[in-house]
């Protein structure tokens, strides 16, 4: 089974800015500590006149002062580094201007995509998270374009998918940049494993790490500091790389993540298949966002269709057994297709076309072979199966009657063969997220 590359070390240029910044902080701290000592000494002198505290202060004065200086220094240093991260090294996940965004979109596609839609072109915006880019230029969006594009009926996909984005992020990006691309259809890929999760903060990029940026007035909790998140992410990456090296040394195949990390993620995603998940995870709020996306498409004059990507544990029986055993989940708590039933019913009531890929992927009988090794993302074969199912699904929709009528009757019973693009990574070499 192949794996994919998900992260490259921080660029050297970023570290060049970071190291002098820390040295400058240490220089200022030398003078700052002197003022802190004076303040603590004056406070201690005032306390020394109080009965009961006098003896404790006299015996522990030096220790108390040193601890106060240390804590104050660490806090001050954290704020300085937070400022360096926030105002010097932080970058948005996607370009914020329309020109930069258009270039960013084209950079992931085999050929340039102009913002102005060519005459006669049926243009689809592909909206998803990492599922929409995980096979690089052989992801299901690219393969779908190969399947449906015809000389007399041109069809293209503009891929708006961003790794780590959730439905609310996707709504914002569609509202901001969607109208300028004049889509006929928005094809929304929803991953049931984590798209029900709601998070606070803006997803940003810091030296290659996806972190959450919170407003300054919300930085009351240490875990919201970029510094804290960066340190935690760096430690997690180091720990997982160490596990992968150990697995390689012991003769086990090395995947995208270590076996332990893959299982941890799989257990987390399996929450959607447990009783009480709709109320506990507030699925109603997620559906409200999906309905807003549908309304936004309607305001642009575009159709909207939802594609449900199952969690790997729903498809791979061996992984599901491992998840249940490791997490100690009782069988009577499991409702395996609960996420799909919820969304299919809501889409039915809202008259939104919806494709459930769970039965499609299970029908192949390939199970874990549809996914990258130690990864929850579909590999090239999994993306091929998804693309063919989506193509058949779209051809059944009224908006695609022209495509359905133009298909050669002699070839209607055979699926087009999709050839991997020449610049795609070879099997086993992986891919990089955008």
The SSE order reads: HHEHEHEHEEEHHHHEHHHEHHH
- How much β-strand is present in the residues? 5-15%
Q: What gap, in angstroms, lies between the N and C termini?
A: 23 Å
Main beta-sheet strand count, sense and barrel state? 5 strands, parallel
User: What is the CATH top level name of the largest domain?
Assistant: Alpha Beta
Task: Round the mean pLDDT to the nearest integer and report it.
Answer: 81
Morphology:
globular
Number of domains: 2
Q: Classify the helix fraction into a percent range.
A: 40-55%
Number of strands: 8
Classification by helices and strands: alpha/beta
The helix count comes to 15
**Uncertain residue ranges:** 11-17, 406-434
CATH architecture of the largest domain: 3-Layer(aba) Sandwich
Multimeric state? single chain
- C-alpha-based Rg, rounded: 26 Å
CATH superfamily of the largest domain: SGNH hydrolase
Provide the CATH topology of the largest domain.
Rossmann fold
Main-sheet strand order equals 3-2-4-7-8
What does this structure look like?
The chain is an alpha/beta fold and 434 residues long. 50% of the residues lie in helices and 9% in strands. It has 15 helices and 8 strands. The strands form 2 sheets. It has a 5-stranded parallel β-sheet with strand order 3-2-4-7-8, sandwiched between helices.
């Amino acid at each position: 089974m192949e794996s994919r590359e998900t992260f490259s070390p921080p660029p050297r240029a970023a570290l060049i800015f970071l190291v002098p910044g820390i040295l400058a902080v240490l220089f200022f701290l030398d003078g700052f500590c002197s003022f802190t000592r004076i303040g603590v000494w004056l406070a201690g002198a005032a306390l020394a006149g109080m009965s009961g505290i006098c003896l404790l202060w006299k015996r522990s004065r030096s220790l108390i002062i040193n601890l106060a200086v240390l804590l104050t220094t660490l806090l001050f240093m954290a704020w300085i580094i937070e400022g360096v991260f926030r105002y010097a090294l932080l970058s948005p996940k996607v370009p914020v201007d329309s020109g930069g965004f258009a270039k960013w979109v084209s950079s992931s596609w085999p050929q340039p995509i102009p913002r102005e839609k060519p005459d006669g072109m049926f243009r689809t915006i592909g909206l998803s998270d990492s599922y929409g880019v995980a096979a690089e230029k052989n992801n299901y969006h690219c393969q779908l374009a190969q399947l449906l594009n015809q000389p007399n009926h041109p069809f293209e996909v503009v891929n708006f998918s961003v790794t780590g984005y959730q439905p609310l992020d996707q709504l914002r990006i569609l509202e901001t940049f969607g109208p300028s691309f004049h889509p006929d259809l928005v094809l929304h890929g929803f991953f049931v494993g984590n798209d029900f999760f709601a998070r606070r903060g803006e997803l940003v990029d810091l030296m290659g790490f996806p972190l959450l940026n919170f407003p300054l007035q919300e930085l009351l909790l240490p875990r919201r500091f970029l510094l804290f998140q960066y340190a935690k992410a760096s430690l997690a990456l180091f720990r997982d790389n160490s596990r992968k090296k150990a697995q390689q040394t012991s003769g086990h195949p090395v995947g995208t993540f270590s076996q332990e990390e893959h299982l941890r993620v799989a257990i987390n995603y399996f929450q959607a298949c447990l009783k009480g998940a709709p109320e506990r995870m507030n699925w109603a709020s997620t559906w409200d966002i999906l309905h807003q996306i549908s309304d936004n498409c309607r305001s642009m004059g575009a159709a909207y269709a939802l594609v449900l990507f199952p969690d790997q544990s729903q498809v791979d029986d061996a992984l599901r057994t491992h998840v249940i055993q490791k997490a100690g989940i009782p069988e009577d708590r499991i409702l395996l297709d609960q996420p799909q039933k919820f969304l299919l019913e809501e889409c039915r009531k809202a008259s939104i076309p919806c494709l459930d890929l769970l039965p499609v992927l299970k029908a192949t009988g390939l199970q874990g072979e549809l996914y990258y090794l130690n990864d929850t993302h579909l590999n090239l074969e999994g993306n091929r199966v998804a693309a063919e199912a989506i193509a058949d699904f779209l051809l059944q929709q009224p908006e695609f009657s022209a495509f359905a009528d133009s298909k050669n009757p002699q070839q209607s019973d055979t699926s087009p063969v999709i050839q991997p693009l020449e610049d795609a990574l070879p099997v086993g070499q992986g891919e990089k997220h955008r």
